[in-house]
């Protein structure tokens, strides 16, 4: 079984083409026979569609529709939700939401970073300002709400980045920043708050996830010093684990049977090096009578992820960092299998399909590795050139030398995320979506 995407559906109806949320949560298995192995900027590119503004979110898919979010304006004035036909790349509709909390549009601050969600009835777009808007599949607005007004203001130097997760009836939003933080459950039909639980202030961009444990579901939050499990119905804290550090960017993925991987990074300046060193590894949620606990099954020695979340596929666990180093471990024992460096840095989370694992390089090179215990490169695919991508409008110059150095890294075209249909990869660049089929 492919364990890269969630092994259990949290939505009532999910089709073979659907990719409903961040990291494919709720999606089914994909076949390597129908997905491309090789491509180039001139071969197997079905379409490339320009998006208004810029977005760091991943695409989501429902049926024949792709949905993406973006932001535009000198103060991130407008948020956009765009619907694209998955077969032809034609923009079917685009809707605008005015930002409730304008802030300078900067390379250094998140820009439409949270990934939207979709189900059989609605498209849910959540933005780092706390603005949330819900449309039907035809673009009609169902409701909107400013969580920034209700639970903010948000004090975040680099902006918020967590994507929401969902069940059939509710969506869950993690609002973490330097001020009073919380996890909030909203009714998907009305936008009303079902419950809210407070959390300590912290700097983290990890997204919550739904995991199945036995015949129950839990909301899993791995974030900046703790891993916590919550009851989706009541918001009750079921368990908490604090022997962890540096888990500020990667998000947990349901690996089945209450298992998931923790990704922990030393940090930009090594501030979390000590606590992160022993934090990467496989975790297991266990029920003992009426009590829940979390145990660490094994530690991924020397693994140092950055933004890409670790995955399990075909019995092997993979971490990858921004230098392009892949760390592979036996998923049952934790034994190190190999450590190798690929051609390019990876920011997006890899995807395992059949006998392959796809690693999405920051600058557009997608490396396809053999899904096995031997490091073998099947293909290295360039997805664009400077000539094939639409040009972006430059933003205002940053105010300090440190921020200018950071801007030089973020100003280049970046492969932020991916969605996978039954026969195509949808690659998200800041102002475009590329369909590889």
Automatic annotation (TrEMBL):
Domain Pyrrolo-quinoline quinone repeat spans what residues? 42-149, 170-240, 295-371
Query: Entry's Gene3D superfamilies?
Result: YVTN repeat-like/Quinoprotein amine dehydrogenase (2.130.10.10)
InterPro entries associated with the record: PQQ_b-propeller_rpt (IPR018391), PQQ_rpt_dom (IPR002372), Quinoprotein_ADH-like_sf (IPR011047), WD40/YVTN_repeat-like_dom_sf (IPR015943)
What name is this protein filed under? Outer membrane protein assembly factor BamB
Species of the source = Aporhodopirellula rubra
